[in-house]
Design a protein that fits this description.
The chain is mostly helical and 239 residues long. It is built from 9 helices and no strands.
């Protein structure tokens, strides 16, 4: 195989410099600081030169966001690498790892999980973080007899959305290699998964932005208690 051209190597290096500079601005100052003008100033080039690589700020931010999500997934994969593959321990280790990452990468968390976007971000299931989270959740569903809500309790107004979500879930689970009984993924289970994520995400977001209604001297205990409650409600133990 021939070596890449000098121009190609320069382009790749320049693209890497752009992303590295954008990441530094994000970490130091927050998402609003990531602008083409600021990046160009840091690199000592003109802002129009950046359009060779990115069509707009939104384009650059979406690539930066993908880099952050990939790094998060890699960190979580390392967390669970030595844990049993039956799912429960991995799933709750991922929950704890997500909180730890969010608290130590608050600007990246804000960009990925708490910033409005002009793009359709309704489905992030096929991204690295979504895959690792759902693969663990899928193994829990496949290998444990859980306490799940009946499909009858799902509000009628939500059923079309949850049905569409089911199809996406199955595609991601199949891609991750999880052998999953189709009859287990009814609307009640899908509803449960959405509620599980909402409670996890809501708790982490409140903590990251300091929005608890009262101050807690030991927030770790509160988070662990929340996870224990979630596990108990579906018939699991995480002790």
């Amino acid at each position: 195989m021939s070596n890449p051209s000098r121009r190609g190597r320069e382009r790749a290096a320049t693209d890497q410099d752009i992303r590295r500079t954008a990441r530094a601005l994000l970490v130091e100052q927050g998402p609003e600081a990531v602008t083409l003008r600021a990046i160009a100033r840091e690199l000592g080039i003109t802002a129009p030169a950046l359009y060779r690589y990115y069509g707009s700020r939104d384009d650059l931010v979406e690539h930066l966001r993908a880099d952050v999500v990939a790094d998060l997934a890699a960190e979580l994969a390392e967390d669970i690498a030595q844990l049993p593959t039956e799912g429960a321990l991995q799933l709750f280790a991922i929950c704890k790892g997500f909180r730890r990452w969010a608290l130590t990468h608050t600007k990246e968390f804000t960009l990925v999980f708490a910033s409005p976007s002009g793009e359709d971000t309704s489905s992030r299931l096929d991204e690295p973080f979504g895959k690792i989270f759902l693969a663990a959740a899928g193994r829990v569903l496949a290998m444990h007899d859980l306490v799940t809500p009946s499909s009858d309790v799902v509000p009628v107004e939500l059923r079309d959305d949850l049905t569409a979500f089911q199809a996406e879930l199955l595609a991601v689970l199949e891609e991750s290699g999880v052998t999953f009984p189709l009859e287990k993924l009814d609307l009640g289970v899908t509803y449960l998964m959405i509620q599980f994520w909402a409670r996890l995400y809501g708790h982490v977001t409140l903590e990251v932005f300091g929005n608890y209604p009262i101050p807690f001297s030991k927030p770790d205990v509160l988070f662990d208690a929340m996870l224990a409650d979630l596990a108990r409600e579906i018939g699991l133990s995480i002790d």
